[in-house]
Amino acid sequence: MPTRRVLLANALSAAFAVRALANPSDSFPAVLAGLQAEARRAGISPTTLNRAFAGVTLNQKVLDRFHHQPEFTMTWARYRALVITDKRITNGLNAVGANRGLFQRVEQRFGVDPGVIAGIWGLESSYGTGTGDFRVIEALATLVWEGHRASFFRSELMAALKILDHGDITPAAMTGSYAGAMGQPQFMPTSYLRYAVDFEGNGRRDIWTSKPDVLASIANYLAKSGWRFHETWGQPVRLPPGLEPAGRADRRALSEWARAGVQPLSGRWHASARTISAVVAPDGADGDAFVVFPNFDAIRRYNPSDFYALAVGLIGDQVAVQ
């Protein structure tokens, strides 16, 4: 029997087909004209608009990716095996080792520990080696035309134009994912405007090629999301028989979990007994289990997925060995 998610995906595909018939690709220029008019009213310069929209066309690859996103039915065990690989850990150790001084400067400036920065850097772009090659303006304009979440993508496109107007990046170099996530940290344009940092001090915030700006921008995002300096995100635990954790909604002092029979796999707790925490078992009580602390929530503000936050924490713990 098809799942609800499959049925929804089919419905979206059908709706897109109807829209495509009613609004063939020759209506795309009208969408571009409307976007440029809105941008002019927002104060974007004509020169920036001419450069940003030069050669922009309806991108079928963006539409194909948007309408064929994978179902999110993967187990944690499968996800962990796919993303926490020996290669990613080895590359992470090399990346952190080669940039240790930079990590230390970022840590001192923002009060964010190197492990979590490296974990996000590794997951988002494999330490800067895979950042996406879609032209951001074209991708976002295509998704505005597509219609679903049009207001969201319109806001992101306007933010991208502000970035170009400021001169931080050229239109040709502003590349990212099919949905407009940019550079090594995979910031959406609105996140860039809020959190990107010119740590290199050259007057531009370059999250595409500048490691100082990349790492500092990730740190700034986490700092403003409530990261607690020199505290961990969580740790693996062993659950007692019969305990079925309720996840992040069930928050207790760590001492309460210990009295309930939850035990740290490492043999010691990595937080104080009073630390408010939750027990997360993404595949159920028979699979991996973790006690998570307030910094776990800071990671989830970067990406609101338990799988993602767990992977960031686990990768960071392994690649930021002093």
How is this structure best described in words?
The chain is α+β, with helices and mostly antiparallel strands and 322 residues long. Among the domains are: 28-66 and 132-195, Orthogonal Bundle (Helicase, Ruva Protein, domain 3), CATH 1.10.8.350; 234-292, no CATH class. 53% of the residues lie in helices and 7% in strands. It has 15 helices and seven strands. The chain has helices at residues 4-22, 28-41, 46-53, 60-67, 76-83, 86-98, 100-110, 114-125, 136-146, 150-166, 189-195, 211-224, 254-259, 294-302, 306-319, and strands spanning 134-135, 175-176, 234-238, 252-253, 263-264, 276-280, 289-292. Strands 4-6-7-3-5 form a five-stranded antiparallel β-sheet. A two-stranded antiparallel sheet has the order 1-2. A hairpin with an 8-residue loop joins strand 6 and strand 7 (289-292). Helix 2 (28-41) packs across helix 9 (136-146) and helix 6 (86-98) packs across helix 8 (114-125). Mean pLDDT is 91; it is low at 1-18.
